[in-house]
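We modelled the chain as a single entity of 688 amino acids. Its sequence is:
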Amino acid sequence: MTHPSLKHPANRLARETSPYLLQHAHNPVDWYPWGPEALERARVENKPIFLSVGYSACHWCHVMERESFEDASIAALMNASYVNVKVDREERPDVDEIYMKAVQAMSGSGGWPMSVFLTPDLQPFYGGTYFPPRGMYGRPGFAEVLSALAKAWKDDNKRLVERAAVLTKHIGDEARFQGEAEIDPSVLDASISGLEQNFDPIWGGFGDAPKFPHALDISICLRNWKRTGTERALAIATTSLLRMSEGGVYDQLGGGFHRYSVDEKWLIPHFEKMLYDNALLVPAYLDAFVATGEPHFARIARECCDWVLREMTTKEGGFASSQDADSEGHEGKFFAWTPRELESVLGAKLGAMAAAWFGVTVEGNFEHGTSALWRHDKPENVARTVGIAVPELERAMADARAKLFEARKLRVAPGTDDKVLASWNGLMIRALAKAAQVLDEPRYSDAAQRAANYVLTGMRQKNGRLFATARHGRAHLEAYLDDYAFLIEGLIDLYETDFDPRWIREALALESVLHDHFEDRDNGGFFTTADDHEKLLVRLKAPHDGALPSGIGVHAGNLLRLAQLTGRRELAERAERTLRSVGALANRYPTAFSALLHAIDHLAGGPREIVVAGELASSKTREFLRTIRTTFAPQRVVALLDSRADINLMPLLAGKGDARKEQVFVCRNYSCQAPTDDVTALAAELRA
């Protein structure tokens, strides 16, 4: 079906790589991408800028495009009075972050699509999220907003400019906040107390609807249980992971998590699938599997990884960003089912069993009599309802699931945003590396290696710095803090998977870029953009977590691990300074700093350096590694002394070789216990 806007000539967005921007390339709106051409026109003509920010998997972004940006009369209003700039928030998180703060300050909330009106010098004076074309849903109509603000810009310009200046000062003051303090030793326990207060004991997760996965918070709970033995922390984590995986927020047929649930039961999601959500959830499920031995958690992690390999891997080897919520113009149509559709694929008997198993009813739990698939009841209850034994039912449902998955392939699939983001690829490299370790699956390490090679070559500049985004081999835009921090973390985990010292060398090279261009030399921590980045309204620091972990928190952990592996004391000192730089905030609001708390937990747990001496191909070496990887002891680094090892790079390895036998050294603070060549003894030491 031809997109309705294709009747309009292409605008400037047709030259962009972002699928989101390309979706708007035939709007009648005179769109500009963010850049000097648009900003200069606004200054020369003294016109306000209308800034529209979204992303390709965003359902309401599509709605606003269809309703407003394809409407010729609304486009005429936009073109007459504004310089119109369209931004993909995933390509320009720097722009998105600044103006999201403005929208939140003006309206008390934020989201996408984000609609912001700026002065020609980029100061925001009005903003919101989705606007219907004409007044509805309790929201002013977009046409009304455009007309009213154009009139105000002409007739009351001084007041708008003053308003914008006040708001800009507020954003700048927040960016300059100084929060240096020593971390309170009780902050880890305070975090668990805060999470427990917000925990839903029935459905898992935190808070009421809408519910987001909070993967880092779950991991903090698992680490707290390991460090303190608090069973409540373990229950919070495992209940949340189980309930999420049973809900419609999880794709019960194809694997992978949707972005979030609109209800407290995890039943109905917003159906887009984001690479970063799954990259963060896979390690949480792997940790839960290692901590509890529950195979269900391993299955979910495996299915998420398989979805990424099957549907999200680009021909260059990187990972695509997201899959759309919509297909054929309707959100969730690809994923929802009716009893009749189940019967048409499975037959009457198996179809009725599948309807009971997945909670598919005649009335439906979603829209238009359709149902999102979810595991709403225990297997024994469903077995009793359909009149068969549980093992027989589970075998039947495995068969049904496979048949429904194949049948679903005949539907019109949601679109995939196939741009490759360095930051999200770093997260997925980490997830696949950890999955390869825990699940002993070479396919995952192979995919992680290919992605790392692509980002380090295809998205690398001649000066050694990264590009933020690439599509179809074309890389551009200067990388941000998250691109470096997340990729460094992935490379460290990739080293602990295949033990190629190249990954540590590359991690150190990228860390040097962060130190030289991103570090706040006055107050500690790291800015989100480099010192030579395009000059924006303000230069921000973001120590707290959002949908993504804080780059500052992640890199504090990177510095600690690299210091252990390489023995470079200056890296540990940099990590300690980074932690102190946001200590006042973390002490006050610990649940907002889970990425940072992972680094603090790493220190609190008495981190160990584990050296395995032996060739990777040796069965005894692999047995040692299997024992290490299947023991939940997250406060550690692991290095391998084999024929490829670089002792100059990692002095930790020096003096530990013995050609006669494979053995393991468990060390703390570079002081090692006597080596062992006994797997049972190693397991006991790791559990201690």
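As a brief sanity check on the tokenised model: The mean pLDDT is 95. The longest helix spans residues 157-175.
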